[in-house]
Protein backbone atom coordinates (compact mmCIF):
# COMPACT_ATOMS: atom_id res chain seq x y z
CA UNK A 1 0.00 0.00 0.00
CA UNK A 2 1.50 3.38 -0.95
CA UNK A 3 2.17 5.88 1.80
CA UNK A 4 -0.32 8.75 1.72
CA UNK A 5 1.58 11.67 3.23
CA UNK A 6 -1.50 13.90 3.27
CA UNK A 7 -3.48 11.27 5.21
CA UNK A 8 -0.69 10.98 7.76
CA UNK A 9 -0.42 14.77 8.11
CA UNK A 10 -4.19 15.01 8.62
CA UNK A 11 -3.86 12.39 11.36
CA UNK A 12 -1.08 14.39 13.04
CA UNK A 13 -3.13 17.60 12.78
CA UNK A 14 -6.25 15.88 14.14
CA UNK A 15 -4.44 14.40 17.14
CA UNK A 16 -2.79 17.75 17.85
CA UNK A 17 -6.16 19.53 17.75
CA UNK A 18 -7.89 16.96 19.96
CA UNK A 19 -5.03 16.90 22.45
CA UNK A 20 -4.49 20.68 22.19
CA UNK A 21 -0.81 20.26 21.40
CA UNK A 22 1.32 23.33 20.86
CA UNK A 23 4.96 23.73 19.98
CA UNK A 24 7.33 25.85 22.00
CA UNK A 25 10.18 26.89 19.77
CA UNK A 26 13.22 27.34 21.93
CA UNK A 27 14.68 30.79 21.54
CA UNK A 28 17.83 30.40 23.59
CA UNK A 29 19.95 32.23 21.02
CA UNK A 30 17.67 35.26 21.05
CA UNK A 31 17.51 35.20 24.86
CA UNK A 32 21.28 34.96 25.15
CA UNK A 33 21.72 37.89 22.79
CA UNK A 34 19.29 40.06 24.78
CA UNK A 35 20.84 39.11 28.13
CA UNK A 36 24.39 39.61 26.83
CA UNK A 37 23.59 42.99 25.31
CA UNK A 38 21.99 44.23 28.52
CA UNK A 39 24.94 42.98 30.58
CA UNK A 40 27.39 44.65 28.22
CA UNK A 41 25.47 47.94 28.31
CA UNK A 42 25.26 47.79 32.10
CA UNK A 43 29.01 47.23 32.32
CA UNK A 44 29.74 50.19 30.05
CA UNK A 45 27.51 52.52 32.03
CA UNK A 46 28.06 51.32 35.58
CA UNK A 47 31.25 49.30 35.74
CA UNK A 48 31.20 46.17 37.92
CA UNK A 49 27.91 47.12 39.60
CA UNK A 50 26.44 47.89 36.17
CA UNK A 51 27.43 44.40 35.01
CA UNK A 52 25.43 42.88 37.86
CA UNK A 53 22.42 45.10 37.30
CA UNK A 54 22.62 44.73 33.51
CA UNK A 55 22.85 40.94 33.85
CA UNK A 56 19.82 40.80 36.12
CA UNK A 57 17.77 43.14 33.95
CA UNK A 58 18.97 41.36 30.80
CA UNK A 59 17.97 37.97 32.18
CA UNK A 60 14.49 39.19 33.01
CA UNK A 61 14.16 40.91 29.65
CA UNK A 62 15.35 37.76 27.85
CA UNK A 63 12.78 35.67 29.71
CA UNK A 64 10.04 38.12 28.76
CA UNK A 65 11.10 38.32 25.10
CA UNK A 66 11.20 34.55 24.65
CA UNK A 67 8.03 33.73 26.61
CA UNK A 68 4.81 32.97 24.82
CA UNK A 69 6.54 31.40 21.84
CA UNK A 70 3.90 28.69 21.48
CA UNK A 71 2.17 27.97 18.19
CA UNK A 72 -0.57 25.44 17.48
CA UNK A 73 0.95 22.27 16.05
CA UNK A 74 -1.21 22.23 12.88
CA UNK A 75 0.11 25.70 12.04
CA UNK A 76 3.69 24.51 12.43
CA UNK A 77 2.99 21.44 10.28
CA UNK A 78 1.65 23.62 7.47
CA UNK A 79 4.85 25.69 7.65
CA UNK A 80 7.17 22.65 7.46
CA UNK A 81 9.21 22.28 4.30
CA UNK A 82 8.37 19.21 2.20
CA UNK A 83 11.43 17.23 3.32
CA UNK A 84 10.49 17.62 7.00
CA UNK A 85 6.85 16.75 6.29
CA UNK A 86 8.14 13.58 4.62
CA UNK A 87 10.32 12.75 7.64
CA UNK A 88 7.38 13.26 10.04
CA UNK A 89 5.07 11.20 7.86
CA UNK A 90 7.65 8.38 7.76
CA UNK A 91 7.87 8.41 11.57
CA UNK A 92 4.08 8.19 11.87
CA UNK A 93 3.81 5.64 9.07
CA UNK A 94 6.18 3.33 10.96
CA UNK A 95 3.58 3.24 13.73
CA UNK A 96 0.44 2.81 11.63
CA UNK A 97 1.86 0.69 8.79
CA UNK A 98 0.09 -2.44 9.99
CA UNK A 99 -3.30 -0.70 9.66
CA UNK A 100 -5.29 -0.87 6.45
CA UNK A 101 -6.94 2.42 5.55
CA UNK A 102 -8.35 3.96 2.40
CA UNK A 103 -8.49 7.63 3.36
CA UNK A 104 -7.58 10.07 6.13
CA UNK A 105 -10.96 9.77 7.85
CA UNK A 106 -10.61 6.02 8.20
CA UNK A 107 -7.00 6.32 9.41
CA UNK A 108 -8.01 8.92 12.01
CA UNK A 109 -10.86 6.72 13.18
CA UNK A 110 -8.61 3.68 13.53
CA UNK A 111 -5.93 5.54 15.49
CA UNK A 112 -8.31 7.54 17.68
CA UNK A 113 -10.09 4.30 18.57
CA UNK A 114 -6.88 2.79 19.91
CA UNK A 115 -5.37 4.62 22.89
CA UNK A 116 -2.06 2.81 22.54
CA UNK A 117 -1.63 3.83 18.91
CA UNK A 118 -2.69 7.37 19.72
CA UNK A 119 0.02 7.61 22.42
CA UNK A 120 2.62 6.17 20.07
CA UNK A 121 1.76 8.74 17.40
CA UNK A 122 1.88 11.56 19.96
CA UNK A 123 5.29 10.32 21.14
CA UNK A 124 6.54 10.25 17.54
CA UNK A 125 5.28 13.80 17.00
CA UNK A 126 7.04 15.02 20.14
CA UNK A 127 10.27 13.23 19.25
CA UNK A 128 10.24 14.63 15.71
CA UNK A 129 9.79 18.22 16.81
CA UNK A 130 12.40 17.94 19.54
CA UNK A 131 14.98 16.28 17.29
CA UNK A 132 14.40 18.14 14.03
CA UNK A 133 13.32 21.61 15.17
CA UNK A 134 14.68 21.80 18.71
CA UNK A 135 11.10 22.47 19.73
CA UNK A 136 9.09 21.15 22.64
CA UNK A 137 5.54 19.86 22.21
CA UNK A 138 3.23 20.70 25.10
CA UNK A 139 -0.35 19.79 25.97
CA UNK A 140 -2.54 22.81 26.75
CA UNK A 141 -6.06 22.80 28.16
Overview of the structural elements:
It is built from six helices and three strands, in the order αβαβααααβ. It is mainly alpha-helical. It has two domains: 5-23 and 72-139; 27-68, no CATH class. The protein has a three-stranded antiparallel beta sheet. Helix 4 (82-96) runs antiparallel to helix 6 (115-133). The longest helix is centred in the middle third of the chain and has 39 residues, at 28-66. The chain starts with a helix and ends with a strand. 22% of the residues are buried.
Short description:
The protein is mainly alpha-helical. It contains six helices and three strands, in the order H-E-H-E-H-H-H-H-E. Strands 2-1-3 form a three-stranded antiparallel β-sheet.
Q: Helical element count?
A: 6
Query: Which regions are unreliable across 5 or more consecutive residues at pLDDT < 50?
Result: none
Strand content: 5-15%
By DSSP, the count of extended strands is 3
Q: What is the domain tally?
A: 2
Keywords:
141 residues; mainly alpha; 9% strand; elongated
Question: What's the arrangement of secondary structure elements?
Answer:
Layout: H1 5-18, E1 21-25, H2 28-66, E2 70-72, H3 73-79, H4 82-96, H5 104-112, H6 115-133, E3 135-139
Helix pairs in contact: 1-4, 1-5, 4-6
Amino acid sequence: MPVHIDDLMRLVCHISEVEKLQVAVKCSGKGALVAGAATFAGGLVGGPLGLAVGGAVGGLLAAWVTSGQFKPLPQIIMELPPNQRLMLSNDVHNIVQRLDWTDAAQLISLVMGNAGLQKEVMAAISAFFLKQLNAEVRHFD
